[in-house]
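Memo to structure team: turn this sequence into structure tokens by end of day. - J.P.
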Amino acid sequence: MYRTSLLALSAIVSMAPAAALADTPRELLTTAAFQTATKPQALKLVAQAITASDRILAARPNDHEATLQRAIAIGYRGKLTRSRSDVRASLDVFQKLAAANPRDPEAQIVIAGWHLGAVDELGGFLARTALGARVSAGETALAKAVALGGDRAFYPGLAALLQIRNDPSDIAQARRWAEAAATGQAATPLDALMKRAALSVLPSLRANNGKAAAELARKLVPFGKIGD
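Reply from structure team:
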């Protein structure tokens, strides 16, 4: 339904090729979002992630990780199949997770990605009337995620991509976040990925070329390799 509505959606913990997939929901969604070039291939992986999450939740109904990844998978499925009900269902879970732990940066970043992704895909008016998505809500959650994320590169790196993609004129904010990601800690593959992404867009941001930075950012967010 919308491009990268969920960013952060899936925390990227593995950069292994599709042939070497692990069976955790997080890893399956990582491959679906960043390493597939077709919708059918991505949907197959998303379905596997839902099945894996359901299996975990059957044994541990309150498992936070499985709950989060299942919601991300439902949102991804909604984006790929243009299902408004799936898209809305994912946000409901994200909001419950954020309410349970207001200081969880991951909950904030997926909420930010949901709102800003919907606006990017549908435009402000349609995103608001059809889904209830708002730029202001996305930007508020984005700032919270960065503030709560400590010195990790992931949060400011993703924030820079989402910000410049949605508003190519707001170069200053996107550059601040990209600079922070470039010097942030890359203790996990997810952080390393977003650090590389930030370094990729920084030359355009430093040259005050928001349009070029935005075009590149679109290729670096989830499903950036899949055409419409």
